Fold this sequence. Notes:
45% of the residues lie in helices and 14% in strands. By secondary structure, it is of the alpha/beta class. It folds into 2 domains: 2-197, NAD(P)-binding Rossmann-like Domain (Rossmann fold, 3-Layer(aba) Sandwich), CATH 3.40.50.720; 207-405, Rossmann fold (3-Layer(aba) Sandwich), CATH 3.40.50.720. The strands form 3 sheets. The chain has a 6-stranded parallel beta sheet, sandwiched between helices. It has a 5-stranded parallel beta sheet with strand order 11-10-9-12-13. Strands 7-8 form a two-stranded parallel ribbon. Strand 10, helix 15 and strand 11 form a beta-alpha-beta unit. Helix 13 packs across helix 14 (330-340). The radius of gyration is 23 Å and the shape is globular. The N and C termini lie far apart (49 Å). Bound molecules: nicotinamide-adenine-dinucleotide. Nicotinamide-adenine-dinucleotide (NAD) binds next to helix 1 and helix 5.
Amino acid sequence: MNITIIGTGYVGLTAAICFANSGHKVISIDKNEEKINLLKSGKSPIYEKNMEEMLSQAINSGNIIFSTDLEYGIKNSIINILAVGTPQSENSGEADLSYILSASKEMAQYIDEYKLIIIKSTVPIGTNHEVKKIIEENSSQKIDIASNPEFMREGFAIEDFMKPDRIISGIENEKSQKLIEKLYQKWIENNFPILFTDIKTAELIKYSSNAFLMTKIAFINEISNLAEATNCNISDLTKAMGMDHRIGDKFLNPGPGIGGSCFPKDSLALSHIAKKYQKNLSILDQVIASNNQRFVDMAKKISKITKNNKKIAILGLSFKAGTDDVRMSPAIEIIKHLLQDNFDITAFDPESMKNSQKILENKIKYADNIKECYDYSQYVVILTEWVEFKEIKNYSDFKEKVIIDLRNII
Ligand code: NAD
């Protein structure tokens, strides 16, 4: 079937490529011309494992078209999927819906027959209905709206999209359900579970899932503080806890704090949603506070270990291994605290140097490779768990250095 996806970010591009390689005819739209030109030439604007191979496969099959022409996209598909960003508002921390709402208004003017509009972006309860209202006010056509939140992890985007734990869809009628079943026909044939619910519940499922996962990590981060203070072995502890099926072994690795473009912003957005309905999510509020404190504590820990020596090398800038995404990266947050304490930093990351420079500018120095970064100082801090950083164990002077491994990879 013909589908149009608006937004070629981590989610939109992954969805576009995966749907195209599953046999759909996809029109992938972005207003960013630079991204579209890059994609047309077969290059991915983001780093993601297997993305470029899957992109070439999609282009060669003739199943994908990249364009900035929204009118063309809307007019040529019954299903239109919105996958634009919903970042954190700068002042309040609520979800910033400006991209969703302006894209909806723009889309409305081109809708001249029935469409199913699917929102894949993470949006607060009621947003799908707000989008429907905007479109119906600005177009004479009847549309249906459906929520289809995305659960893929950056670093495993293609794999997660193709083999999801579950597909969630909030719908308002049988017609939408049938279209979504057609969209995910390949997944249904392969027995991946698909759960239909109402639209508002689907919106809340996404936020609740992210908030729960963030809680799990924040909990083990605090337990690791206690384990360190009492000389207990955190690796044995998490292994033992994870062997209990009720707990599970995922998301039990302590680290330098929770980052990325989803967990911190979605948890904050959920806390705001609850306040709007006069409900208190006190556990979640404490998780958010605990995570913010974690970045301060990690900077203090580095400072304590390096004593008066302010010259350090940092390995890792992306929010986790396998991605070039630095949005709310713990590494960047910790570096900001260290810079306030006048640290002199040289850093290296295999994929996110360009993105990091946009945030940190020339406040730190950037090395060309691991060795150059490592050689910069007696103190080497590991902030992202890229496997290639393990190679420092083979350097001749490794035992003479102080390695501050905040990801426990060494
Ligand atoms: P992103 O910032 O990487 O990409 C958004 C894209 O939308 C950009 O390329 C931007 O140019 C484009 N865009 C914005 N307005 C547009 C318009 N009017 N017309 C056409 N293109 C437009 O965002 P992302 O990380 O892909 O996230 C998208 C949504 O999915 C967010 O709501 C996010 O919370 C959610 N989500 C993200 C992830 C993740 O791992 N990144 C996982 C699950 C859910």
